[in-house]
């Protein structure tokens, strides 16, 4: 998926708390950005809907005034975006709207904005399609009832919220326990009932997307969080087996927490220092010079160096190296790039310098780190 589209969807989700799903034409779940309520119902509602094609756009209204929109990204990308959110009531077999005061016209308006942000044109206005609860009869309900009897109900939302708070706050000591409690609170859900590997990949990607949001809330610039998310997502798709889904999700979460911790150590309200940090995140994959930062921000190199050191207790060069080492860690763990390729991509003068810097920071060589942390 194009990075521009992913940024549009992440920011839309953050701003509205409306759920976002992205499917391939084969109905593999590629991206999941949950709304305020974590529920099976969104997947069930869309299960039997025929996907539009040729950049088509549709709005649906369900029997309880819940709304979803489908946007086709076209034959080149072969992906469908679904916007919307509902909550399945555990007390009764009906679906309750969970939109916070978003009525149909408002929902159509924000959906139109998403369409425009992707295609740079407004969608052709069509009347929403009304769907009765007949879509939800029979097998879908029976399947959900069976899973409930087997205690495969979705994780308690409070456990999820508690878990995400540990990422947002950079609490690496509390995250493993919070994750385990979340996993133990119920089955993490099934997104692909017929393929265990595909299901585990979907669960890992779903966890990745909510961890990305939590990390951004924790202070990581969106550029850095989304770049890390893309690297991890690509490597998840390459996996040929996943023997322990909780362990995989734990590794992903800890990597984000480490980034949050580093960001919070350098947290500042000074706009100059914040701009320096943002520039560094945007240019991690190149050689960063203090003189270039100074030109970009229209300050002298001495001024930004002095104020950065005063605010963060680190030199700009130290901070750059720290962030590059974090990026090296993620690429060692979640890509199959050689150490030489990583060194070149991140703008190091040579592989030997990267190795020395990495060992000084972590106590181990890049090769050993990859052996221990590669998924």
Automatic annotation (TrEMBL):
Gene source species: Ligilactobacillus ubinensis
GO molecular function: DNA-binding transcription factor activity; sequence-specific DNA binding
Signal peptide: none
PANTHER family xref list: ARAC-FAMILY TRANSCRIPTIONAL REGULATOR (PTHR43280)
Name of the protein described by the UniProt record: Helix-turn-helix transcriptional regulator
Coiled coil: none
Pfam families: HTH_18
Start and end residues of each HTH araC/xylS-type domain: 274-372
SMART domains in alphabetical order: HTH_ARAC
Keywords, sorted A to Z: DNA-binding, Transcription, Transcription regulation
InterPro entries named in the record: Homeodomain-like_sf, HTH_AraC, HTH_AraC-typ_CS
Lineage: Bacteria, Bacillati, Bacillota, Bacilli, Lactobacillales
């Amino acid at each position: 998926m194009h990075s521009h589209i992913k940024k549009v969807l992440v920011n839309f989700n953050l701003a509205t708390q409306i759920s976002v799903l992205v499917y391939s034409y084969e109905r593999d779940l590629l991206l999941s950005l949950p709304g305020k309520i974590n529920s099976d119902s969104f997947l069930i509602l869309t299960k039997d809907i025929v996907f539009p094609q040729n950049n088509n756009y549709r709005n649906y209204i369900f029997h309880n005034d819940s709304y979803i929109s489908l946007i086709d990204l076209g034959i080149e990308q072969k992906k469908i975006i679904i916007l919307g959110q509902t909550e399945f009531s555990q007390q009764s077999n009906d679906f309750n709207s969970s939109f916070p005061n978003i009525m149909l016209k408002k929902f159509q308006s924000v959906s139109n904005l998403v369409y425009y942000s992707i295609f740079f044109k407004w969608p052709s206005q069509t009347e929403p399609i009304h769907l009765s609860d007949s879509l939800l009869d029979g097998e879908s309900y029976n399947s959900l009832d069976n899973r409930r009897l087997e205690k495969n109900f979705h994780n308690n939302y409070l456990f999820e919220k508690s878990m995400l708070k540990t990422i947002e706050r950079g609490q690496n000591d509390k995250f493993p326990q919070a994750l385990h409690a979340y996993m133990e609170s119920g089955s993490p859900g099934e997104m692909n009932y017929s393929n265990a590997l595909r299901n585990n990949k979907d669960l890992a990607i779903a966890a990745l997307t909510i961890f990305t949001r939590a990390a951004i809330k924790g202070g990581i610039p969106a550029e850095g969080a989304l770049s890390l998310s893309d690297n991890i997502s690509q490597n998840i798709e390459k996996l040929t087996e996943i023997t322990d889904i909780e362990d995989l999700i734990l590794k992903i979460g800890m990597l984000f927490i480490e980034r949050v911790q580093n960001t919070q150590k350098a947290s500042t309200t000074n706009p100059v220092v914040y701009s320096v940090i943002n520039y560094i995140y945007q240019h991690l994959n190149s050689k960063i010079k203090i003189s270039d930062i100074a030109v970009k921000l229209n300050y002298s190199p001495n001024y930004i160096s002095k104020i950065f050191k005063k605010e963060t207790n680190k030199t700009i060069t130290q901070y750059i190296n720290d962030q590059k080492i974090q990026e090296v860690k993620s690429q060692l763990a979640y890509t199959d790039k050689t150490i030489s390729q990583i060194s070149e991509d991140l703008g190091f003068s040579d592989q030997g310098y990267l190795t020395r810097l990495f060992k000084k920071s972590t106590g181990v060589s890049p090769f050993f780190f990859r052996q221990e942390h590669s998924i």
